[in-house]
Description:
By secondary structure, this protein is α/β, with parallel strands linked by helices. The protein contains three helices and seven strands. The protein has a four-stranded mixed beta sheet with strand order 1-3-4-2. The protein is flat. 15% of the residues are buried.
Amino acid sequence: KLYSMYVENKNANYAGVKKDSSSYFYSGYSKDIKNILGKMNVAVQDSTLQKNWSIVYSNNYQPVMKGVEAKNKTMPNIKGMGLKDALYLLENMGLKVVVNGKGKITGQSVLVGSQIAKGMVVYVELG
């Protein structure tokens, strides 16, 4: 017991590995994303093709917006969305949403592309 009280706490150093800030993934309402990027004066490659929902990712250190189709009968990919956008999208599809955590969405209980039915419960994990 005495030994365990005085053992030094060693933090693992993973050879100085740093997080790559050039890698990111966001998702949400296209007009809101364009508005935010415009206010920040960030040039973006826009290929949303007039779709309401889009994803934003990095390609050669340049942000790229790509439109995403949200169909009523299949589960969309909500990873990277904020809770407000995800709730709006899923509840308008007739789904019930149970949320755990805070931040942006990192996981969902129903697989992307799966068939959905009104009243179905979807568990959403934020992180």
